[in-house]
Design brief:
It contains two helices and nine strands.
Length: 174
C-alpha cells in the first residue's frame, strides 16, 4: 500500500504537534506542583532542622579585647594615632572643671610631661585659652574654665608629647 506524500507529511506534523503538546502539559504540571509553600493554604509552619555541621560551630563569644575608644572615666573620647584623649567636664559654682586623661592608645597608660593647652569657644562665640596642669595623684591634666554661662562650649585640646603634636576636639553643654 502506498500513501499519498501529503498524507504522510500531515501525519508526521500532527504526531510532532501532539508530542509537543503532551510534553508542554507535563512540564507545566510539574512546575505547578512545585509551587512555593508560602502560597499554600496549609497553616503548618515549615520545620527547620540543624545539620550536624551547624551544631558543631560554637556561638560567638564576647571579645576579650578591650574597646580602646570606650570612655574609661565617663567622658568624651578621641582616639588619635597612638593616643587616647578623654575629656571629663565637671560643672562647679565658680566655673567648669576640665579633666583631660592623656593616655597611650594600646595600654591606656598615663602620659606625663606633655604640654597641654586648650582653646575654648564660649556660648557667645568668644574664645578663651586655658592651660592644663598635670595632676600626678589623678594621673591626668586639669584646668578650671572660669565661665558659668549656659550653652554649648567647643574645646580644642592642643598637646605636645615629646615634640609631637596630638590634638582633639570636644564639646559640652552647661
Amino acid at each position: 500500500m502506498k500513501l499519498h506524500p501529503s498524507f504522510a507529511t500531515s501525519f508526521i506534523v500532527t504526531s510532532l504537534m501532539t508530542t509537543s503538546f503532551i510534553s508542554l502539559t507535563v512540564l507545566l504540571g510539574a512546575c505547578a506542583s512545585s509551587s512555593n509553600q508560602s502560597d499554600s493554604a496549609d497553616p503548618t509552619p515549615p520545620v527547620v532542622t540543624r545539620s550536624p555541621m551547624q551544631e558543631s560551630i560554637p556561638s560567638p563569644q564576647p571579645s576579650a579585647t578591650p574597646d580602646h575608644a570606650a570612655p574609661m572615666q565617663g567622658g568624651q573620647v578621641v582616639e588619635t594615632g597612638a593616643y587616647h584623649l578623654e575629656l571629663v567636664v565637671l560643672p562647679e559654682a565658680s566655673g567648669t572643671h576640665l579633666d583631660l586623661f592623656l593616655q597611650t592608645g594600646d595600654t591606656h597608660a598615663a602620659v606625663e610631661g606633655a604640654t597641654v593647652t586648650g582653646q575654648v569657644q564660649l556660648p557667645d562665640g568668644s574664645q578663651q585659652a586655658v592651660d592644663f596642669e598635670y595632676d600626678d595623684a589623678g594621673k591626668h591634666y586639669a584646668t578650671l574654665l572660669p565661665e558659668t554661662a549656659p550653652g554649648e562650649y567647643k574645646v580644642v585640646v592642643l598637646t605636645t608629647i615629646n615634640g609631637k603634636k596630638v590634638n582633639g576636639r570636644f564639646n559640652f553643654t552647661r
